[in-house]
Amino acid sequence: MAVGSKTIHSRAPWRGSLAAVLLVGATTSVGLIWRSHLRLPDMVALYLLAIAMSATSCGRGPSLLAAALSVLANDFFFVPPVLTFAVSDLSYVVTFAVMFIVGVLIGGLTIRIRRHERQARLQEGRTAALYELSQDLSEAEDEQAAASLFARRGQETFGSDVTVFLRDGQGRLAPRGSSVSVGATPEAHQRGLEDARSVLENGGATTSAEETGFIPLKAGSSVVGALTFNPPLSSRSADDADFLDAFAQQGALALRGASLKREAAAAALRVRTEEMKNALLSTVSHDLRTPLAAITGAATTLRDDPLPTNGLERTDLLDTICEEADRLDRLVRNLLDMTKVESDALDIKREWVPLEEIVGAALTRLERALDGRFVETALVPELPLLSVDPVLLEQVFVNLLENAVKYTPEKSNIEIGACIEGGRVVVTVGDRGPGLPPGAERRVFEKFFRASPRGAQGVGLGLAICRGIIEAHGGAMNAQNRPDGGAVFAITLPLAADPPSVPADVDSPFSGDRTP
Amino acid sequence: MTPTGPLALVVEDEPQMRLFLRASLTAHSFRLTEAGTAKEALASITTQSPEVILLDLGLPDQDGIELTREIRGWSSVPIIVISARGREADKVEALDSGADDYLTKPFGVGELLARIRVALRHAVPSTAAPTLIDLGRLQIDLVRREVALDGREVRLTPIEYRLLVLLARNAGRVLTQRQILESVWGRRHVDQTHYVRVYMANLRRKIEVDSARPQFLATEPGVGYRLRDRR
Question: How many Cβ atoms are within 10 Å of A435's Cβ, its own excluded?
Fold first, then answer.
């Protein structure tokens, strides 16, 4: 569906002229064949028909040509003396003049009617295109999607590849949507970028737009970006230019709408962040002070008590100091991790790692906390290497296991399983504790959410950190209660396409090989 | 009672940490010398020749990793770096620069002493090449190239054997991925970290009861591996 200017004058002019010549020739032939039956006025009428036909189908130039040829042919073949251009009766000159003028008039009229009709059709097409554009753009999810869609629609409408440049966060122009792949011609894009910038710097002035082939995208008084065609659109009539303007404006409005939507979302996020900060402050002040109070209390007792406290009490106080210091350490660690996850400062260093190693490292780290518990690990042996950040993923398992230890009775079992499901690896950590309170399956991953507010220690950050890390890996986390009791946390991670190979080792029994 | 044990140099600029290290080390009969800056540390190493160095990576006048490299230029005294958690890259760099081991703040006395003991043990050059590495349940006969777990022979491939021997010779000590790759696969393969991971997994399947809960071959995430010395 190309409703641009290209179709209007698409036929080559020489073909129209040829058609006019052929039409006049055919009329002359007919006149010569039925010479005995046709009178001169009949011939005039036939020639007028030929002129009208060439006007309808070929346009102004050919119709003029047809009129001139008709006059000449009529004179030469039918007006006595025949086969000369001489005219015996002066009244024939009047006939010729009238014939020519009528021919020109008919030609002009037909062409005007035809142009109006074509214009109406074009307008209809363009209105439909603009309508579709605004419909589609209003449904675009974000600025990026809107820009891509806009570029695609532009390509369909104008039959030329389109690149849309938009301002980024710093107000600089960047290519955001294109009907061709952006990576395809980086130099062209670089050049385009500079030109587009100059359009913006000129406040979208038309002069620079014409020089560079960039069309500014203006929404109201502000320029939101620019668009460019490759190859550039040629032969723009006033109508075409108007349509292009309307098209660009429609796009600009939609894009500004999308950016306003984004700003609104950002504002909402800021409000939420503010609320979160307040929650954090109150939690931190409470949760940091509790262990600190215990440590201070125990330490001052040990220092100030004039009588040597009895051995048992002394050990208790020292244990308290160690335990509470551990708790403080965990808390600070969690807060730091959460900050990293939150601030997008999570630097994922992907490496190829067997899942077993990550789980093993977490179990080793928690050896003491897991003392006395039976941890069953059932990882299917054919699991491929995962492309993940081993340090961050170990943290996920440490948090999940610490959680299980915290919320389930002593000596209850913990089960870790892994399997492959539809191109993804699903790892589960299940416990045999009281399970999640109803409705908490989603909320457990929220920051500062605690399943049992007073019972267990912790700030309610562990699972939020897990989710942050897993989502940063392109995976997902969920929690649910098990039908036979306890809770299970599932991590779903996409499997990377091609795990690297490892050079084969001589797999012969080694002990027989004694060569140095 | 004046301590008579090995001389330890503590390079740390925070007074509280120094107090803790002084208290715990002298209580375990170490002799102690302290430095708050890299400059003091270098002076102390040249004049007092400590037998082990505890080096905090965050010093006011010089980067701890740089200092490690400098010391390694002329001394093989064991260096244990002290670093905060989450700075795995620093630890790896320090180890690859010649540090013997690392401790993550906060740490307890038990951990500190264990690391120092291992570092001191590996610092003494053995005069005769050992013929047997005995790690209790795990024994490696270096002459016959045989590995036995609880007295039963374990069949290893050549690479698995090389990997195990490397870790066993450094029992108790952390080895970075790079150090392992360089030693087992050669300098050209130092970036192929998955080699180590895959072979380590194979090795665990052969010598661990539960390969997901390793008793011998511990992973130090983001850093490397340590064969836990349970003697």
Answer: 20
